Amino acid sequence: MLAVGENGAGKTNLLESLHVATQGFSPRTRLDAQLIRFGQRDARVTVEGSRGDAPVAACVDLTLAGAKRATLNGAKLPAAEQLRRELQTLVFTPDRLTVVKGGPAARRAYFDRTLARLQPSRASLPADYAGAVAQRNAALRFSSRDAVAPWTERVATLGAELVHARVETLRALEPGFRERAGELGLPDALLVYDGEPPTVAALEQRLERDLERGTTSLGPHLDDVRLLSGDRDLRGFGSQGEQRLTVLALLLAEAGLLAERRGVAPLLLLDDVLSELDPGRRRVLAGIVAGIGQTVITATQRSALPVEPSQVVEVERGTAR
């Protein structure tokens, strides 16, 4: 589906609404109050569709007075974010280029979200590890060696599990990432994990330094993922166009994996994805998404998409038709 409209017409709001209704949260902000129209106290987003042969209806209610609420097929969910366990949605926005051009924290967060989608049984692992590091850091700041010891073991155990899970995620993504990047004109794309599983011995070797600084100086909370094209690290030596292709290739690779593992393709939301692609790459992208599943693309002009879309939605002053 192609959503067309002038700048500021509300195309990005349309995609944001679809993300909120299927994932329970906005890809833009964690402040729910920013999702409610100025001057109003409540908002509701409802979507209906199908997953395979089964009908799906999801609804998210937002209010300034309390927590948001969500239902799936009429059943109330304990938390709106639980929608993402049932419905898969992947989004591209221009600010996602920070995955490539930003610091290590942006890449860790991105691939940990991917890990959660591809390995649901390990979805809590990044948060569990972060909690253990926070407890160890608290003990370090109080200079309590006895209190640090059990958290050192916990950090080593969970840290090793997290590193292995991340590496598995990258290995699963890499064939599709390389293929999609190649199709889009980015040759020899690679994903390289920078980091080793922490051990109790390695953490204890750094104990004096950690006590001095009050923070844990070793572990996957400091690791990175290098995104390469051949020998080039695309963070420092990739053009903005290449960085955009990298993020697109990652998203498309994950979409293919999710479709393969779950039997249902995710919903793809591609905001302003065509503006910096040449006509050849636009055609390639259109061909790829046509074979994956339902995709919503925004553009300022209908001619930006070089193929005939299944549906065109015109967005004007916050209204879609």
Structural description of this entry:
It is a single chain. With about 325 residues, this protein is an alpha/beta fold. It folds into 2 domains: about 1-90 and about 265-320, Rossmann fold (3-Layer(aba) Sandwich); about 100-265, Glutathione S-transferase Yfyf (Class Pi), Chain A, domain 2. It contains 11 helices and 13 strands. It has helices spanning about 10-25, 85, 100, 105-120, 125-140, 145-185, 200-205, 205-215, 235, 240-260, 280-290; strands at about 1-5, 40-50, 55-65, 70, 75, 90, 190-195, 225-230, 230-235, 265-270, 295-300, 310-315, 320. The strands form 3 sheets. The protein has a 6-stranded mixed beta sheet with strand order 6-10-11-1-12-13, with helices on both faces. The longest helix is centred in the middle third of the chain and has 39 residues, at about 145-185. The radius of gyration is 22 Å and the shape is globular. The protein starts with a strand and ends with a strand. The model has no long low-confidence stretch (mean pLDDT about 95).
Average predicted confidence as pLDDT: 95
User: How many individual domains?
Assistant: 2
- Computed CA radius of gyration, to the nearest angstrom: 22 Å
Main β-sheet, in a few words? 6 strands, mixed
The tally of strands reads: 13
Quaternary organization:
single chain
* Strand order, sheet with most strands: 6-10-11-1-12-13
CATH-defined superfamily of the largest domain: RecF/RecN/SMC, N-terminal domain
According to CATH, the fold-level topology of the largest domain is: Glutathione S-transferase Yfyf (Class Pi), Chain A, domain 2
What's the level 1 CATH class of the largest domain?
Answer: Mainly Alpha
What distance lies between the first and last C-alpha atoms, to the nearest angstrom? 12 Å
**Residues in β-strands, percent:** 15-25%
Helix content: 40-55%
| SSE pattern, N- to C-terminal | EHEEEEHEHHHHEHHEEHHEHEEE
Number of helices: 11
Global outline = globular
The computed structural class is alpha/beta
- Looking at the overall shape, the CATH architecture of the largest domain is Up-down Bundle
Low-pLDDT windows of residues: none
